[in-house]
UniProtKB/TrEMBL annotation:
This is YozD family protein. InterPro entries: YozD. Pfam families: YozD.
Length: 56
């Protein structure tokens, strides 16, 4: 199987959640979006979908 590089940005995750939640009638606070993005990132790590790399 071929390995590909995917960059996961928690800011992009937060924007995605904001868009999707507002479509559904929710107005989340900025800190709530940050928490959701962090939780999503941690979930992806736990499921071994992504590997965390440190910025150099």
């Amino acid at each position: 199987m071929k390995e590909i590089e995917v960059v996961i940005d928690t800011d992009e995750i937060a924007e995605f959640f904001y868009t999707e939640l507002t479509k559904r009638g929710y107005i989340p606070a900025e800190n709530e979006l940050e928490e959701l993005a962090d939780i999503t990132f941690e979930y992806l790590l736990k499921k071994c979908i992504i590997d965390e790399e440190e910025d150099l």
